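The data are passed on as follows:
___
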Amino acid sequence: MTTQQHFQYLLRLGDNALILGQRLSEWCGHGPVLEQDIAITNIALDLVGQARSILEYAGQVEGAGRSEDDLAYHRNAHQFFNILLVEQPNQDWAYTIVRQFFFDAGHYLILEQLTNSSDEHLAAIAQKSLKEVAYHLRYSSEWVIRLGDGTEISHEKMQNAVNELWMFSGELCTPDDIDHAMLEAGIGADLLRIQPLYRNKVEEILREATLQIPASDWMQSGGKQGRHTEHMDYILAEMQQVPRAMPGLTW
């Protein structure tokens, strides 16, 4: 394991939380009902808080003097390493919930393993984040079941969301060279061990929601290597506008 691999692994974790938090923040003031508007915004705040902790630590590991704000606001799309799932647009409540559930199911399992990481700082962040993500997973699972096994229209919308987002659901738990190196160093999560647990959880909830699991096992990937969909540039343009326009500004 190299310092660069350690740094990039932390960026992956932080970028996943940051970009999904940014996506969820788009619901603020636009939720289907007030209670869910507040709930989804609180989940966004949890994720941004996790991103801050991880990106701050990533800057320390890199040793180049970059802060969490530098890493969040002054990288271009190809320098982000989040999975493709989290950058997908909200579209409607069904897409948002399915995207959140697919992420939460894997995120929880990864954090659970990271609580035993040999990197004590990362383990501490994972321990704190796990409590929040346990709620996220419960929330998204309940909504998948409620809408999937709800009205004819809600079921149809949820099935369409599952069908379209399914191909993005595998990247989070699919290891590459960096994942293998971090696992060997005792720092990272064992994604091969997590894969069947993740699949079982997803299938369990979808069955309870009376939703069909897509037959195809082909999965999109590339986000963990800095290759993104067209949506990523639009997210960053909105998120980074003020810091880029007025660099160094303090309040």
User: Anything to note?
Assistant: The chain has ten helices and no strands. The chain has one domain: 3-245.
